[in-house]
Design brief:
heterodimer, A: mainly alpha, two-stranded antiparallel sheet, 2 strands, about 0% strand, B: about 375 residues, mainly alpha, ABC transporter involved in vitamin B12 uptake, BtuC
């Protein structure tokens, strides 16, 4: 603790940096997943379920198999299953995609809590870290710069996804389906099939994001693991204007905002701790109020998206 | 203004909105599909129980015993149903206008905080006045909370689902902040809690029952809102907005004020639920008020198909399922999340069954 005292207020930016590199990863994965799903013209409000389910499945598989990376894959597969359920329900006529998302979120969370009961005690192998802070003697700096490989994968994924939307055939098909289902149908694409695949892939990313929670930071399984990162996905994507690169920035910003409260607390400034925790939500709400308009849908929103109409 | 609208209405009823109960066949449909969906979800949950090595029949028997098997468990279920039916209205009423509001949890929490604040501000006043005013304060606070969502929706075009979701987190943060500082009672050690509203100001029990007055309040509010949406022109105007907002505007309906008012009423119901939880059960605001009433409320609203009268029995059913959770834990060694799994399955199946409305030819009115 002496070190912390010596650092003084420098502990705050360091704490925020450590938070950005940790807390932002689940935000990043769920927002990229949600971005992909929404680009195809459907909204999945239930990614919180995928996230929690992924966290549980990843932890369980890592514990049983001893391989955390296998856990990450299992988490993704679990996310895909929930995504497929969402896609199937929404492909039925008259079924409301927003409501189905909420229901699958409750289902996923319930199932994860149920199946995860025996996983609260044991310790599963965690994901390895890459230490970028080797040059420093200060433990806070070393801790802050311990970066997880999943974070780097997510950072790489954002430009890849943005590039694919712009430059590949698949990206174009997804965007067409998302902007005008009629046009896509006229061109001979199966709207439902494209949306199904986009939702399943989006669910995969959200599941992987969940495995980060249980396998790296905070790094264990319990029922209070997620603090609503999956629910924030929808808001994040609106915030990022359906652009994967901006999703990355938004995730970093939200990670930083969420770690501001704990970082301030670590230097003894605990006034308004909970209000700082609510900062990301307030930020999103403020941005939505500023950028929305009753006369048009949000700028650059996919045309078929129910939530922005 | 009013006379042409009245002439138009009879022609509109059929193509634009299906009013449940408008024909005998559609009444049967409105009952048969949710009941069928409940049966399907019971079968699915039974398969889930089989898969984890439980006997579904025994588990269902225990759920029945825990929920409605005795007078004691009935009272327990009714007690739990009272906040649920109020918070369900927070989703059900705006849904009639085509909005999906999921902010019941936040409105409930804000209502609870306002209740405590009102009780403290009115300290020393006659207890009947304090009780009335603090329930009113909770309702108004919740109403303003969701009314804000409605206002954002109409005047700024902000999606109501997302704004109400964000406001849930903001409400919980506000409460957590206040119970740590401004309204904290330092005498309570185990959990940061607010001051007590005062034993004299608490809502009592219904005579002859072990259930507080909140049940009656909840049922009356559901009944009144049912009459409002079903038998008044205001309620009908709301249904038109839900069916076709542009048509509603062209018919001269004041869409904006009606949206804000409806959201206010829904939020007020949820705020009242929070107020009753404080005034009848907990006495203090603390994190123990955040137990997912809001999310169960959304489920109830959808099972009840946004009909305030149907909310009452569905809330009692879900209250019963919640009440039986403890029994499942003790008798079958099932974790408390079992109830969550069951609720989740019911919710998914109910929503998927929406696709059946109007599809089964059996329920369609014969075309002359």
């Amino acid at each position: 603790m002496e070190e912390a005292a010596a650092l003084g207020w420098w502990g705050v930016p360091l704490g925020v940096l450590a938070g950005v590199l940790r807390v932002s990863t689940p935000f990043l994965f769920v927002s990229l997943g949600e971005c992909l799903t929404e680009k195809s013209g459907r909204i999945n409000l239930g990614l919180e379920g995928n996230l929690v389910m992924g966290a549980m499945a990843g932890y369980g598989v890592s514990f049983v198999s001893g391989s955390p990376w296998l856990g990450v894959v299992a988490a993704g597969v679990m996310g895909m299953v929930l995504g497929a359920m969402h896609a199937w329900a929404c492909s039925q006529p008259r079924v409301n995609d927003i409501a189905v998302g909420i229901s699958l979120m409750l289902f996923g969370i319930g199932l994860a809590f149920f199946l995860g009961k025996p996983l609260i005690q044991p310790t599963a192998p965690r994901l390895p870290t890459i230490n970028f802070g080797w040059w420093s003697d200060t433990p806070q700096i070393r801790f802050a710069l311990e970066v997880n490989a999943l974070f780097l994968i997510g950072v790489a994924l954002a430009p890849i996804m943005a590039w694919s939307f712009k430059n590949t055939r698949w990206g174009l098909i997804v965007r067409t389906v998302g902007d005008s289902a009629d046009a896509a149908r006229a061109m001979g694409y199966h709207v439902n099939r494209v949306r199904m695949l986009s939702t399943v892939a989006g669910g995969f990313f959200a599941g992987v994001g969940g495995s980060f929670l249980s396998l790296f930071y905070p790094g264990s399984w319990n029922e209070g693991l997620s603090s609503g990162q999956g629910l924030m996905a929808v808001a994040l994507v609106i915030f990022a204007r359906w652009d994967p690169i901006k999703c990355l920035y938004a995730a970093l910003l939200f990670g930083g905002a969420s770690s501001l409260g704990p970082a301030l607390q670590s230097v003894g400034f605990s006034e308004g701790y909970y209000l700082f925790n609510a900062a990301p939500y307030l930020l999103t709400l403020a941005i939505m109020i500023i950028s929305s308009s009753p006369r048009r849908s949000l700028i650059s929103a996919p045309g078929e998206l129910s939530v922005t109409k | 203004m009013s006379s042409p609208r009245e002439r138009v209405i009879p022609d509109w009823r059929i193509p634009f909105i299906r009013v449940p109960g408008s024909t005998p066949a559609s009444t049967i449909e409105a009952l048969a599909i949710p009941v069928g969906a409940l049966i399907v979800s019971m079968i699915l949950f039974g398969l889930f129980l089989l898969a984890i090595g439980q006997n579904p029949i025994e588990v269902y028997q225990s759920i029945y015993k825990g929920a409605f098997g005795s007078w004691f468990s009935w009272q327990n279920s009714l007690q739990r149903a009272s906040p649920l039916m109020l918070v369900a209205l927070c989703t059900a009423l705006p849904a009639r206008l085509g909005m999906i509001v999921i902010g019941g949890e936040g409105a409930l929490v804000i209502g609870a905080v306002a209740t405590v604040a009102a009780a403290v501000a009115l300290e020393g006043a006659p207890s009947a006045a304090v009780t009335t005013l603090m329930l009113l304060a909770g309702a108004v606070a919740g109403g303003l909370w969701i009314g804000f969502v409605g206002g954002l929706r109409h005047y700024r075009g902000v999606n109501e689902t997302i704004s109400s979701l964000l406001l849930n987190y903001i409400a919980i943060a506000i409460m957590s902040h206040l119970v740590l500082g401004l309204i904290r009672d330092p005498a309570v050690l185990h959990r940061p809690s607010s001051w007590h509203v005062g034993e004299d100001n608490m809502l009592g029990l219904i005579p002859g029952m072990d259930v507080h007055w909140g049940l009656i309040i909840g049922a009356v509010v559901c009944l009144v809102t049912f009459l409002l949406v079903r038998w008044t022109t205001v309620g009908f105007a709301g249904d038109i907005i839900g069916g076709n907002p542009r048509a509603a505007r062209m018919a001269g309906i004041a869409v904006g004020p009606l949206i804000v008012t409806t959201c206010f009423l829904g939020g007020a119901a949820a705020g009242l639920a929070g107020a009753i939880e404080i005034a009848a059960v907990q006495g203090r605001a603390s994190s123990s008020i955040v137990v997912g009433y809001g999310y169960t409320g959304i489920l109830i609203a959808f099972i009840a198909r946004q009909n305030p009268l149907a909310v009452i029995p569905v809330a009692i059913l879900l209250g019963g399922i919640r009440a039986s959770g403890g029994l499942l834990q003790r008798w079958h060694d099932l974790p408390d999340a079992t109830v969550l799994v069951m609720q989740g399955i019911i919710f998914v199946v109910i929503l998927a069954s929406e696709t059946l409305y109007g599809r089964a030819t059996l329920f369609q009115p014969r075309k002359a």
